[in-house]
UniProtKB/TrEMBL annotation, chain A:
It is a multi-pass membrane protein. Belongs to the TRAFAC class TrmE-Era-EngA-EngB-Septin-like GTPase superfamily. FeoB GTPase (TC 9.A.8) family. It is found in: Cell membrane. Residues 1-161 form the FeoB-type G domain. It holds the Pfam family FeoB_C. The lineage of its organism: Bacteria, Bacillati, Bacillota, Bacilli, Bacillales. The gene is feoB. It comes from Paenibacillus vini. Its main location: membrane. The keyword Acetylation does not apply. Probable transporter of a GTP-driven Fe(2+) uptake system. The chain crosses the membrane at residues 349-373, 393-416, 428-453, 459-484, 517-538, 550-568, 615-636, 645-665. Keywords: Cell membrane, GTP-binding, Ion transport, Iron, Iron transport, Membrane, Nucleotide-binding, Transmembrane, Transmembrane helix, Transport. This is Ferrous iron transport protein B.
């Protein structure tokens, strides 16, 4: 098998099927545009490679990621196409199917979501469909894996027999003549392309830029093709009322699709109002939608902190500071380790890494809820509700996807900005992504809000997230007014039906998101903790007797005066913020090492002596907004390909953080808060 | 003796972890990302889009 490709409309379950058919795990979500690049995996039965392509409605691309599929068909020429079709949206899905059948290579239709179609009261006659389209049809439920074995065996059978489809649409004399003419031109130039000349001719008649660019025809051929097209359009206009060849071809295909669907789909039991429509009347309401979303977020934080996260975190803390520390302590004593080694392991590693690891429950719960929102279909509604707001401030609706990913980690969020076609909008999005409160900042909030705002922890954390979002909108407006004028592009999002996420998928997706945090704790944060501990152990005069004489105190002290107006002008805060540039979790590690205390309760007591609630809030806001972490700066440099924009991102966020923290602290003091 | 072994292991591992972390961050793109395997913008070494706006 030289290669099969999965191709279909957005959000039809291609990646779910890809994960089932290959042994890889790729990110899936119940929202359009999750896949923006093609991915290649090996089929489980080792019969060859399988390529997963981004979802498209037709081969005519609307954005860069949509062009990936059309370019792939021209340049890679797969031997087999597996077209995933959403059974509940058959009519819309068949448009792409027809273009694929015309491609000339064997096509298998994976009729997915037959369960959803059934729930809507739709019955599909697959035998009739197969007969009309002259191709194999395999019913599927990709989410649960039903039908994947049949699909795999059908793929092997089709491959062996090399059955090319004999499906052809007669587009009328004028178009057929043009197809012949263009086919001759293309054939004379591309003798070994292996592509169907009829398909290429149709794509050219439809003005498909991705196909035309990939073919790289000579100017002479192109001008002859242009003449054929102009002539065809002229002749067509004499007979039909059509504005372009593309429109006419579309209308012929649509007519055939409607004819097929009329016989293949039995709608007699169709349910008038689906559950999705009922939920959407309030969840995606233009007025109530946003308050409902905010209430949902508040609920998320209640769960993440008060209800579930904190009790679990306390248990973990009790284990790390209790049995684990005692065991390590005893082990070190048994092997005769010195005081230095004791301090290094207990204060440095267990203090630094353990101090961050105790917040693992909060991070995992947060990821679980994010995965639930994505997989249930609610995420797509959020993007639609925010789209108007985004447009008002000069951002592309597509920017929402990076922003939402940014709540997990800013690095993949910056990468996800690639799906934005307009370079200016893409740069604007990348610059603003770091304002999204990533999961690395959660430990800082959990620590501080837990100490100073124990009764309203969820509300305080929600306020920080909202602060990030509001500032993003304000800055987007400012930046688009002064830095990125005149840019507009197209955003389209499809609303998938709501569905109850599969438990396995949910936990898998949570684990995939969360394991990065664990890996980071065991590598970078551990390394950082040892370095920070060493900086507290040593000072300009050798071994520091007091931590105030250490190198870390000297480094933090440099910034203390500068941080004074913000309410936390101590060397400890300065040091925690400087080291937090490595990764934001390190702010907590540093605090643990500086205040070297045996457990969370001890640390909380120390911090409650060093900060007031107002200072703590100002500190949290500063951590939210100040410079993106090292990894984000790295990815920004790579993606913007400009040091100027990277430094601008660091610079503006520092200024913003400073201004906001000053306003919070000084303003708070002014109105009498402490 | 055990002391020296522990200290050597801890410091070498910490130095290695920091070195690798910083090197990955410097490289940018997917290599620095904690979610690169489960990422929506998965980048099988694909180049960044070529056009970026020129600063004013």
């Amino acid at each position: 098998m030289s290669g099969a490709a999965l191709i279909g409309n957005p959000n039809t379950g291609k990646t779910s099927l890809f994960n089932t058919l290959t042994s890889s795990y790729e990110y899936v979500g119940n929202w359009s545009g999750v896949t923006v690049e093609k991915k290649i995996g090996q089929l489980k039965d080792k019969s060859g490679p399988l390529t997963d392509l981004p979802g498209i409605y037709s081969l005519h691309p609307l954005s860069r990621d949509e062009g990936v599929a059309a370019e792939y068909l021209v340049t890679d020429s797969p031997s087999l196409l597996i077209n995933i079709v959403d059974a509940s949206q058959l009519e819309r899905n068949l448009y792409l199917t027809i273009q694929l059948l015309e491609y000339g290579k064997p096509v298998i239709i994976g009729l997915n979501m037959i369960d959803v179609a059934k729930a809507r009261g739709l019955a599909i006659d697959t035998a009739y469909l197969s007969e009309r389209l002259h191709t194999e049809i395999v019913p599927l439920i990709a989410r649960t894996g039903v039908g994947s074995k049949e699909l795999l065996s059908c793929m092997n059978k089709t491959e062996e027999k090399d059955l090319s489809p004999c499906f052809t649409i007669h587009y009328g004399a004028v178009i057929e003549e043009a197809i012949l003419g263009i086919s001759r031109e293309v054939n004379s130039e591309l003798t070994f392309s292996g592509l169907s000349p009829r398909w290429i001719a149709l794509q050219i008649l439809e003005d498909n830029p991705a196909v035309m660019n990939s073919l790289a025809l000579t100017e002479a051929t192109l001008s002859r093709i242009r003449a054929i097209k102009e002539d065809a359009l002229k002749q067509l206009r004499m007979k039909e009322d059509t504005s372009s060849l593309q429109d006419y071809i579309r209308s012929v295909r649509t007519e055939i699709i409607q004819d097929i669907c009329a016989s293949a789909v039995d709608q007699s039991n169709r349910k008038p109002h689906t559950l999705t429509e009922k939920i959407d009347t309030f969840a995606a309401h233009p007025v109530w939608g946003i308050p409902i979303f905010l209430a949902f977020m508040l609920l998320t934080f209640e769960l993440t902190f008060d209800w579930l996260g904190n009790p679990l975190s306390d248990l973990l803390d009790a284990f790390i500071s209790g049995p684990l520390s005692t065991l390590v302590e005893q082990g070190l004593t048994a092997v005769g380790a010195s005081g230095f080694t004791h301090a290094l392991i207990i204060d440095g590693i267990i203090g630094g890494v353990g101090g961050v690891l105790v917040f693992m429950p909060q991070i995992f719960i947060m990821f679980l809820i994010i995965s639930f929102i994505e997989d249930s279909g609610y995420m797509a509604r959020i993007t639609v509700m925010m789209d108007k707001l985004m447009e008002m401030v000069g951002l592309n609706g597509k920017a929402l996807i990076p922003f939402i990913i940014g709540f997990g980690c800013n690095v993949p969020a910056v990468m996800a900005s690639r799906s934005i076609e307009q370079p200016k909008e893409r740069t604007l999005t990348m610059l603003l992504v770091p304002l999204m409160s990533c999961s690395a900042r959660l430990p800082v909030y959990a620590l501080f809000a837990g100490i100073f705002f124990a009764n309203s922890q969820a509300l305080i954390v929600l306020s920080l997230y909202v602060m990030g979002i509001v500032l993003t909108l304000v800055l987007a407006k400012l930046f688009s007014l002064f830095l990125f004028k005149d840019s507009k592009s197209f955003f389209m999002v499809e609303l998938p039906p709501y569905r109850m996420p599969q438990t396995v998928t949910l936990f898998r997706s949570t684990w995939e998101k969360g394991k990065g945090f664990l890996r980071k704790a065991g590598t970078f944060i551990l390394g950082g903790s040892v370095l920070i501990w060493l900086l507290t152990y040593l000072g300009p005069g050798g071994i520091a007797a007091e931590m105030d004489d250490s190198f870390l105190a000297s480094i933090g002290g440099l910034f203390a005066a500068l941080l004074e107006p913000l309410g936390f002008g101590t060397w400890q805060s300065g040091a925690a913020l400087v080291t937090g540039f490595m990764a934001k979790e390190v702010v907590v590690s540093t605090m643990n090492i500086i205040y070297h205390v045996p457990d969370m309760a001890g640390l909380q007591e120390q911090i409650s002596l060093a900060f007031t609630p107002l200072q703590a809030y100002s500190f949290m806001a500063f951590v939210l907004l100040y410079t993106p972490c090292l990894a984000t700066v790295g990815v920004l440099r790579k993606e913007t390909a400009s040091w100027k924009w990277t430094l601008f991102s660091v610079g503006y966020s520092l200024v913003l953080a400073y201004t906001v923290a000053v306003i919070i602290y000084q303003g708070g003091k002014w109105i009498g808060l402490t | 003796m055990a002391d020296i072994v522990i200290i050597t292991i801890v410091f070498s591992y910490a130095a290695f972890a920091l070195y690798r972390g910083i090197r990955k961050s410097k490289k940018g793109a997917c290599s620095s990302c904690s979610q690169r395997k489960s990422c929506s913008a998965v980048c099988s070494d694909s180049p960044a889009p070529p056009s970026t706006p020129k600063s004013k």
